[in-house]
């Protein structure tokens, strides 16, 4: 590619372009019907999402964070409860626990950057009520070990699947293992809407009914208020757009895996880097690569070199785990997570990248390590 190549980390303005005409048609159609709130497009998306994930119910909500709050409330987590979650996650996971009145208990991640089941087990106390596995970077957590913990300690499991729609572990979808799970459809997520949106899924009909009430002012099907609820509905227009995009999601997932495969082929020989597991590393997993998070012992020089080659990278969560934001007062001693936060960053990973751009990124990474393209 030309020397003046610039590859932004994400392209918000062009991510919808391949379907521009279809999306305008959807907007026109929804406007013509005046179908804005809790209408058929939402119900259709909810049915299709539940079928895609293999769960009993899906409920559209305003965003992924609200989805976590609603899921925690619906399964029965509340004041005084402790909830175990990894420190290497977005602040939203911990904020959801905080806003249901429970206490977030932060634990270490493992070498794949996902919650370490051994650390989770060690954090269990008589007050522990739930565990939140966060399926970070499009990879499903070690669910066999986590399900065993939940069963043997009589805990609840709410999955944070905000980064993992379509990810699978032993044939089951991320988000289908626990009592409930939340997804985010923020524009930069694997399945992105044109703004904020999210969903809660569950196979428990009572939990589904509760989420359905709580997202709509606590109103039942007859409009009678039966609980303190929120207004956290998924806009019907966003649902119509998501329903359209969900049909094509498998193509996007395959493209992300193809980019990850190219990164792996070009970078695996560089000993000082720690790469995410290759998409072909295990037949029991289908990782969807929301992010490509790697570790380097020379992160700042390496990132500066990539930037000089026109490749923009970022540090997830601004380079800090949840306990590293002093304003939240969540003290924890997590040396492994802190070491990972000091070494890791994200290469561009999204479906707007062309093969030439991926090759350019690989060449830039290799040149920093003294290797030819
Ligand atoms: C994006 C994200 C969320 C929050 O989703 P929003 O839709 O932005 O509220 C929660 N957890 C994780 C891990 C995320 O990446």
* Overall pLDDT level: 97
Order of secondary-structure elements: HHEHEHEHEHEEEEEHHHEEHHEH
Total helices: the number is 12
**Count of beta strands:** 12
Question: Gist?
Answer:
With 373 residues, this protein is of the alpha/beta class. It contains twelve helices and twelve strands. The longest helix has 19 residues.
Word description of this protein:
The protein is 37% helix and 13% strand. With 373 residues, it is α/β, with parallel strands linked by helices. The protein contains twelve helices and twelve strands. It is globular, with a radius of gyration of 21 Å. Pyridoxal-5'-phosphate binds at residues 63-65, 89-90, 92-93, 134, 160, 162-163, 184, 186, 196, 198.
Task: Name the features.
373 residues; alpha/beta; 3-stranded antiparallel β-sheet; 37% helix; globular; binds pyridoxal-5'-phosphate
Set out the fold topology.
Elements: H1 20-33, H2 40-53, E1 57-61, H3 64-75, E2 82-86, H4 91-99, E3 103-107, H5 117-122, E4 128-131, H6 143-152, E5 156-160, E6 168-169, E7 172-173, E8 180-184, E9 198-202, H7 205-214, H8 236-247, H9 249-267, E10 285-286, E11 292-295, H10 299-308, H11 335-343, E12 344-347, H12 355-368
Parallel strand pairs: 2-3, 2-4, 4-5, 5-8
Antiparallel strand pairs: 1-9, 6-7, 6-10, 8-9, 11-12
The site of pyridoxal-5'-phosphate (PLP) has 15 residues, from helix 3 and helix 4.
């Amino acid at each position: 590619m030309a020397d003046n190549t610039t590859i932004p980390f994400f392209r918000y303005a062009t991510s919808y372009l391949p379907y521009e005409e279809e999306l305008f048609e959807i907007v026109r159609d929804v406007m013509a019907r005046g179908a804005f709130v809790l209408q058929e497009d939402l119900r259709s998306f909810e049915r299709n999402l539940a079928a895609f994930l293999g769960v009993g119910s899906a409920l559209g909500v305003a965003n992924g964070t609200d989805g976590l709050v609603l899921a925690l409330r619906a399964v029965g987590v509340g004041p005084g409860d402790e909830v175990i979650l990894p420190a290497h996650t977005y602040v939203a996971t911990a904020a959801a626990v905080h806003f249901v009145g429970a206490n977030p208990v932060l634990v270490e991640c493992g070498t794949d950057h996902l919650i370490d089941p051994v650390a989770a087990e060690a954090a269990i106390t008589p007050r522990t009520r739930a565990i939140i596995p966060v399926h970070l970077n499009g990879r499903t957590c070690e669910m066999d070990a986590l399900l065993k913990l939940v069963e043997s300690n009589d805990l609840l499991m709410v999955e944070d699947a905000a980064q993992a729609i379509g990810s699978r572990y032993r044939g089951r979808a991320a988000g289908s293992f626990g009592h409930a799970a939340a997804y985010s459809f923020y524009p930069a997520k694997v399945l992105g809407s044109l703004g904020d949106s999210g969903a809660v899924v569950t196979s428990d009909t009572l939990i589904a009914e509760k989420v359905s009430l709580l997202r709509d002012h606590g109103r039942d099907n007859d409009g009678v208020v039966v609980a303190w609820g929120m207004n956290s509905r998924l806009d019907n227009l966003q649902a119509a757009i998501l329903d359209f995009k969900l049909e094509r999601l498998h193509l996007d997932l395959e493209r992300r895996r193809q980019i990850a495969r190219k990164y792996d082929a070009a970078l695996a020989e560089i000993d000082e880097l720690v790469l995410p597991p290759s998409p072909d590393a295990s037949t029991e997993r289908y990782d969807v690569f929301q992010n490509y998070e790697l570790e380097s012992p020379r992160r700042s020089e390496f990132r500066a070199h990539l930037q000089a080659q026109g490749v923009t990278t970022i540090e997830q969560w601004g380079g800090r785990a949840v306990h590293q934001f002093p304003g939240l007062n969540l003290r924890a001693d997590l040396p492994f997570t802190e070491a990972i936060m000091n070494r890791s960053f994200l290469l561009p990973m999204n479906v707007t990248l062309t093969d030439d751009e991926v090759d350019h990124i690989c060449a830039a990474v290799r040149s920093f390590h003294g290797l030819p393209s």
